[in-house]
Amino acid sequence: MTLALLLSACLLTCLGQIAQKLTVEHWGGFFPGVAGALTSGWLWLALVCLGSGLLLWLLVLQRLDVGIAYPMLALNFVLITLTGRYLFKETVDRRHWLGLAMILVGVMLLGRQA
Question: What is the pTM of this model?
Fold first, then answer.
């Protein structure tokens, strides 16, 4: 149950980040002002995802020590990098891939403590 909450919090946070990226791409390089921003469906999706992720994160913190739970959020770096690479066609160099592999190893090591 705790692992499912943690993974859901990660996924919602990542979806929120993706929605933020889509928001600014939709704006086309300039901020449309507060009133214009508030009409953006992508922005509202980002807020809902990030808010929901926060609520799930609070449930995770009730069940896990913060020293174990917080480093697990490093999975967000992996998910966002994969999204940037394959959805937004961003370049990712070998050093970045190596860093992601190290993050995954660290998450797996910490996951054994949970």
Answer: 0.84
